[in-house]
Amino acid sequence: MSNAIPKEQQTAYQRWEMASFGEPPAPEPEPEAEPPMPAVDVEALLAEAREQIAAARESARREGLAEGLAQGYQTGMEQGRAQALEENTLLQQLSVTFGAEISKAREQVAQDLLDLALDLSKAMLKHALTVRPELVLPVVSEAIGYLPTLQQPALLFLHPEDALLVRERMGAELSAAGWRVLDEAAMERGGCRVETASNQIDASASSRWQRIAQALGRESEWLA
């Protein structure tokens, strides 16, 4: 039987050396210790983080404020323009209304002044006919002159006092032309009425006064 060790069972060869009985071998140097980690100042980091957050917030606030101011300015401008347009429209409406009211007031004042003038004129005319009764004479002549032709009977109606005056001043002339002067108590002083077979002319004071007032666009009664 062979004492040979198969190859696959053989181990690696290690040289054998005799142990030395002299000085012991020097110890292997210990590995160097890693330098200690620097101490972390947590409070400083937190303070720095707080400052950064505060700075970011302040920046955002300023940006938002600037944007808000710009938006507010634009909105304010638009609102201001809208308000100015509304006020301008209102002023134009007030101007038109005020102008219309002024025109109406002027017209009313003019009409009131005209009424006052008519009333004064009527009062003065009545007074004049009282103190100057001879003013009826041209009225009679004018009324007769309106007739295109004279046809009998030709009658002239007057207030009794005016009839007396006409007979004294114009009686002969009227009689020669075929006129008869008649009294009419209801006739106002200063007027007359002419009647012929085909014509009638109302020259009473009230009728003549109404024609004057109507020509001025007013209504005014002589006896009012």
UniProtKB/TrEMBL annotation:
<dbReference type="InterPro" id="IPR000563">
    <property type="entry name" value="Flag_FliH"/>
</dbReference>
<keyword id="KW-0969">Cilium</keyword>
<dbReference type="GO" id="GO:0009288">
    <property type="term" value="C:bacterial-type flagellum"/>
</dbReference>
<feature type="compositionally biased region" description="Pro residues">
    <location>
        <begin position="24"/>
        <end position="37"/>
    </location>
</feature>
<keyword id="KW-1005">Bacterial flagellum biogenesis</keyword>
<comment type="similarity">
    <text>Belongs to the FliH family.</text>
</comment>
<dbReference type="GO" id="GO:0044781">
    <property type="term" value="P:bacterial-type flagellum organization"/>
</dbReference>
<keyword id="KW-0653">Protein transport</keyword>
<keyword id="KW-0282">Flagellum</keyword>
<dbReference type="InterPro" id="IPR051472">
    <property type="entry name" value="T3SS_Stator/FliH"/>
</dbReference>
<comment type="function">
    <text>Needed for flagellar regrowth and assembly.</text>
</comment>
<keyword id="KW-0963">Cytoplasm</keyword>
<keyword id="KW-1006">Bacterial flagellum protein export</keyword>
<dbReference type="GO" id="GO:0015031">
    <property type="term" value="P:protein transport"/>
</dbReference>
<protein>
    <recommendedName>
        <fullName>Flagellar assembly protein FliH</fullName>
    </recommendedName>
</protein>
<dbReference type="GO" id="GO:0071973">
    <property type="term" value="P:bacterial-type flagellum-dependent cell motility"/>
</dbReference>
<dbReference type="Pfam" id="PF02108">
    <property type="entry name" value="FliH"/>
</dbReference>
<dbReference type="GO" id="GO:0005829">
    <property type="term" value="C:cytosol"/>
</dbReference>
<dbReference type="GO" id="GO:0003774">
    <property type="term" value="F:cytoskeletal motor activity"/>
</dbReference>
<keyword id="KW-0966">Cell projection</keyword>
<keyword id="KW-0813">Transport</keyword>
<feature type="domain" description="Flagellar assembly protein FliH/Type III secretion system HrpE">
    <location>
        <begin position="89"/>
        <end position="212"/>
    </location>
</feature>
<feature type="region of interest" description="Disordered">
    <location>
        <begin position="1"/>
        <end position="37"/>
    </location>
</feature>
<feature type="compositionally biased region" description="Polar residues">
    <location>
        <begin position="1"/>
        <end position="13"/>
    </location>
</feature>
<dbReference type="InterPro" id="IPR018035">
    <property type="entry name" value="Flagellar_FliH/T3SS_HrpE"/>
</dbReference>
